[in-house]
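Q: What would this chain look like folded?
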Amino acid sequence: MYDFSSFDNFISTTLGQHIGNGECWDYINLLWTYLGGRYYTYPPSDPSSTNHGVKWGWINVEARTANTINHISQIASLNDVKRGDCVIISDGEYGHAGFASADYDGSGYISMYSQNYNWVEYVKLDTIGMGGFLGAFRYDEWYTPPVPP
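A: My prediction, written as C-alpha cells:
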C-alpha cells in the first residue's frame, strides 16, 4: 500500500491518508515498521512505560538509541536537516514529528508532511516553527549526498 522506494513515492502514497489513530507517531512509525522496528517514545527497557509523546523518542537517550536502527541516522543540528528527514520538535506536551519537505534553509521554519498538527488527523503539509527542534532521523536510502565539484 505504501511505497518506500523513494521519498516522493512515500509522500504520494500517504498524502491525505489517515494513518493508524491519526497521531503524528503513527505516521512516522510507518518508516520504522517498514524497516522491521518501531519508533519508541519511552525507554524500551521499561515495560511499564506508556506513550510519553513523540518528543521522548529523541529526549530519552535510551529511546533515541533504540530508534537508531539499521539505515536510520541521527541528525543533531537543525542546519543539517535535509528533505525526507524525520524531524522531531518539542511542541506542547507530546511534541510533534513529520518528514521535512525540503532542506532546512535557516529561516526558523520548515515545511513538514505530518498528521495531527493542529488536530488534523490526516497527512498534509504544514509550515512549522523550529524553535522547539530536538533532532531528526534520516533514512539513508532517501538521502543522496551532494557530489563534490
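The chain has a mean pLDDT of 94.
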